[in-house]
Structures are given as structure tokens and as C-alpha cells.
Automatic annotation (TrEMBL):
The gene is TMEM107. Keywords: Cell junction, Cell membrane, Membrane, Tight junction, Transmembrane, Transmembrane helix. The lineage of its organism: Eukaryota, Metazoa, Chordata, Craniata, Vertebrata. The chain crosses the membrane at residues 12-30, 89-109, 121-146, 176-198. InterPro entries: Claudin, PMP22/EMP/MP20/Claudin. This is Claudin-34. Its main location: other. It is a multi-pass membrane protein. It is found in: Cell junction, Tight junction; Cell membrane.
Length: 251
């Protein structure tokens, strides 16, 4: 088996980075703090701050039954802007693509360290993992940029009355979930580039070893021992075949 482990150290690092990036995409998907709304009416929103994610909107309240009051946002809700249902779909696609990229990348690195696959299959695995990581980073980044643009232009969301939120905030800013997602995208892009840059060696073989002086002495001693052993066998054979010795035994 050709030794190739020394050729994939950067790709092993890329696999670790890709796994971290994929975990951060799941953190981004589960966070509520995509948009941070600041509102003037604090009769329900006690702190004057609400968090609007792609799955639900939440705020702290002293007047409503739940101290942390949350309402889910569905993909078919008519009041949400287009970027929110698109983000719901894209974050799920991102998680699936990232998981697939991790599996392909892990299998590729495993075959470098332990496998016996041909060079064409190894190249295909590394290229596939790199493409999947790049696609994961792109699918994660697109909804983040879209939502960030809506926040920076102070776009509003007309929530229904059961959300207890005003139709427009006083101000709003980018939440921590978007920054985590951007960091995840950068890591995934970097991981994909590392996998795509893998170069299978044209001649990968074990280096030829030169015999040392100790090996030469050992070979010389072995040869002398075998020579003496053969000479001893010849002498023993002649002794057994000695006719005079056999005649004396017969008398």
C-alpha cells in the first residue's frame, strides 16, 4: 500500500475546520437574535428590546403570562417578508449540505491514512468534499446577507396582534446570530479551498533504503555461518559413507 498520510495534513485541518463551521451553522439556525428590535412601547416589552429570528420572535415581559414571551414564525405566514421563509429553507439546506460534506471529507481523509483506494477515487472524494463545503458556505451566507440588508435599511415586519410587537421598531441592529453565521461561512469556504487544493503525488512510493555497515556485517556473518554449516554436512556425509568404517562394523 502506498504511503500517503504525509500528503493530507492540510486537508485533515480542513476537515476539523469544516466540522466547526457546520456546528456554527446549526447554532445560527437555532438562534433568535437575527434582528434586534428596539421599541418605545414597554407596556408589554418590558426591556424595550425584542429578538426576531427566522423561526420565532421573543421578548421579556412582566405583564404577559410567560416572562420570556415567544411566538413561532411559520414558513406560510402571510405577514413575514420574503427573506424569512427563504432563510428557513436555506438554513436547513445548509445543515444537510454541511453534514454531507463532513461525511465525504472524513471518508476521503480516512482513505488517505488507512485505505487502499485508487488515485482517481481519492481525487474525486477530495474534490467532492471541497465542492460541498463551498456550497454549504454559500447557502449559509446568502440568507445572512439578505437579512442584514433588510436590517440596515430598517425594513419593518407587520406582526399580527398576538405577537404584541409594533409594526416597526424605533431602531434595529444586526443580531449575534448573523455574525456567527458569517463566521461559519468563512470557515466553510476555507475548508473547501483546502480540500480543492489537494494534489495527489505523481510518484508516491517508499524511499529506497541503503544498507548500513551493520547490515553488511550481519550479511557477511550469515554467509560464513551457512558456509560452515554446509561444510560440516559434507564432512558428516563422508563419515557416514566411509566403506572401511562400515566394514569394521560388519566384523
Amino acid at each position: 500500500m502506498v504511503y500517503l498520510a504525509h500528503t493530507a495534513h492540510w486537508q485533515f485541518l480542513g476537515l476539523v475546520i469544516g466540522c466547526v463551521g457546520w456546528i456554527l451553522t446549526m447554532v445560527t439556525a437555532g438562534q433568535n437574535e437575527w434582528r434586534i428590535w428596539y421599541v418605545e412601547d414597554v407596556s408589554n416589552v418590558a426591556s424595550g428590546t425584542a429578538w426576531v429570528g427566522v423561526w420565532r420572535a421573543c421578548f421579556y415581559s412582566h405583564t404577559l403570562p410567560d416572562f420570556e414571551f415567544c411566538r413561532s414564525i411559520g414558513i406560510t405566514d402571510p405577514f413575514i417578508p420574503l427573506e424569512i421563509p427563504v432563510s428557513q429553507v436555506m438554513v436547513m439546506v445548509t445543515v444537510i449540505l454541511g453534514l454531507t460534506g463532513n461525511m465525504v471529507g472524513a471518508y476521503a481523509v480516512r482513505n488517505i491514512y488507512f485505505g487502499e483506494k485508487t488515485s482517481n477515487i481519492i481525487r474525486l472524494l477530495f474534490t467532492g468534499a471541497g465542492v460541498l463545503y463551498v456550497l454549504t458556505g454559500a447557502s449559509c451566507l446568502m440568507p445572512l446577507i439578505w437579512n442584514m440588508t433588510s436590517i440596515l435599511t430598517n425594513q419593518t415586519i407587520t406582526f399580527p396582534p398576538e405577537f404584541h410587537l409594533p409594526p416597526a421598531p424605533t431602531t434595529q441592529k444586526v443580531g449575534v446570530a448573523i455574525w456567527i453565521g458569517i463566521s461559519a461561512s468563512i470557515l466553510l469556504f476555507f475548508s473547501g479551498i483546502l480540500f480543492l487544493c489537494y494534489s495527489y503525488p505523481t510518484e508516491a512510493s517508499r524511499p529506497a533504503t541503503q544498507p548500513t555497515s551493520g547490515d553488511k556485517h550481519l550479511e557477511h556473518g550469515t554467509a560464513m555461518f551457512m558456509s560452515k554449516l554446509e561444510n560440516g554436512n559434507e564432512v558428516s556425509s563422508r563419515a557416514r559413507d566411509n566403506i572401511v568404517f562400515q566394514a569394521e562394523e560388519d566384523l
